[in-house]
Amino acid sequence: MKTRRNRKKFSREAAIPSPFFMAVGVGMFVFFGYIWLDQRCEALGRRISQLEGQKVELQRQVKQERSRWESAKSIEQVGRLLQRHHVAMTWPDERNIVRIRRTVEEPSAMEAAPARHQFARAGGMAND
Amino acid sequence: MVLALIVVLALWMLLAARLVYLHTFPSPKLVADSQGGHTIKRELPVSRGRILDVHGSILALDLPMKNVVADPTLTTNDQQKYSVSMKLAQTLNLDPALILWRLERPHSRYQIIQKFVSVETATNLAGMKMPGVFFEDSSTRRYPHGSLACHLLGFANLEGVGGAGIEQRLNELLKGRPGLRIGEQDGKRRELYNRRGTEIEPQDGADVHLTLDANVQFLVEQALAEAMRVHQAKRAWCLVERVRTGEILAMASLPNYDPNAYRSAGSNAMKNLVISHTYEPGSTFKLATVAAALNEGSVTADQIFDCENGKWFFHGKVLHDFHPAGRLSVADIIKKSSNIGAAKIALTLGEERLEKYVRAFGFGHRTGFDVPGEEGGIFAPRERWTTLSISRIPMGHEVAVTALQLLNALCCIANDGHLMRPFVVARVEDVKGRTLRRGVPVEVGQPIREDTARLMQKLLVRATEPGGTATKARVPGYTVGGKTGTAVKFVNGTYDSRYNVASFAGFLPAERPEIGIMVIVDEPQPLHTGGLIAAPIFSQIASNVVRCLQIPSSVTLLAGAAGVTGGVP
Description:
By secondary structure, chain A is an all-alpha fold. Chain A has four helices and no strands. Chain B has 19 helices and 22 strands. Chain B has a domain at about 215-560: DD-peptidase/beta-lactamase superfamily (Beta-lactamase). Chain B is elongated. In chain B, α9 runs antiparallel to α18 and α11 packs across α17 (about 450-460).
């Protein structure tokens, strides 16, 4: 014998409608999403702040080193060091300076080698 | 049961809806209440721009530092105060009693212990974990080369504002623009990184590139210091300029000061004598007189004047020559530096034309140089001249000039009559490398024709040849042109021959002038003439500078002109 389904019983089981659960689910998703994003932003903010600190520190070090380097290579300092190591430096005499005339057109590499050879043979490097 | 669940969920939903509503449509009052204690506005520090020389050497830069400050309310007992003051005193090299005195102020929450402490020292102090001691960011201006070019650079004060020199003139470009960050902080005053709102990046100050050459500047300062010592002079100053462009390569005044410690410098040491000190130039001024007369054709180079054997009465007043001479040509008047000859040349020119030319050479008004504090000198209008003025102005009396004006006039002659505006700022670049300002050579006039200028160059070379007043200005391998000057100083209402200003203005190489140098020594003892004091200093400076700048010698120039192999590069 075919039994009849009790419609009343089934309708009582569906008292909480599924859209409600969906809304709760969406709400929960939004809530946890919000929390996750907040934490993520917080972590990124910390990282950014940390990197900002590092950048400032590196910039400071660069400036510090630049200042030290400039002081170290100042002419006065170099002179002091030369004096400490008993190194006497003078300018070369004008007659000892070799000046080479710059040609208008640079010769190619193939042309340059023999040209240099000929120039040297002709005693072309003049002291002035 | 289900009903209860629904009620609870509904309540939660209501709460959630309220939360969403508050976030989406916040009431202004609530927002103001919540942000009042949490909003932070922080100025982001900016770095002042650097000043660099022509080779890129840094002459001035900002260094980050820390200020050590204390909150006395956080150091509770005497033992703690004593311990903190001892540690601070030891590290900062301060008097512990002074620190203790600062810490014993229970009503104060902010006491500065030491300003401008290096970051390393601050880190060491922070490691000691002293209660009530904390650190503030600050920065200080540093000049790595010390006193080098101090008058030109100037200094920036503790607030980062330029107080003199380039620092002052270009302060607006150098200082940059600080950034701004508006955000929020939590109850413990920690920044909430994810609540940063407005953020304006700081814009660092622009870099100033000068035409100044630190090597040349050093050579000049070294030579001046030596001269000051040897001649027991009161002051000495020197200027090196590129003839063709007006670029300033060196500008030095002694006494000088260290801009890193500008507060301890005296006012005398802080004066840039090259542009701010006017003096009666003496014979160096004759170059303007003779150039004017030659240009006007009122005299010729070989025209003879009677120099009265060194003593000449003009309008009842006597005029003397340092080297008495009889008849001299115009060329020899320059060579021997005859006052009487110069006065007679000026008489051929007349007052009106003399005034016109002197002004055209740039005397009596500022050159418009890049550094503040420039004086225009004193050159009275013709209406106020006395009957004697026409005989005194030509030899550099009754007129006051700056070294910059005089050297610029000489460079005008060396530059074939073209008067250039002197400048020292080559360019100003922002942090992104964009050029904000560029210094370019500017011709401000042509007081004399090119042929007159070339003739004058030849006459000025004769002054350094045997028999001239400036033989000691010669530089081996180079032909030098120039003019000596010895001016008696006006002291206590009279010209006192014990006090002199010795000077020499010259250019080289005369065949193709590249640089002009002016040397002035104030009150040298016991020698006092420009030829004996300033000319040798010129020679010393010039012989080093030509090598430093790789200026080809006269021999090379002549050889190059004649087409000899191995000429100039």
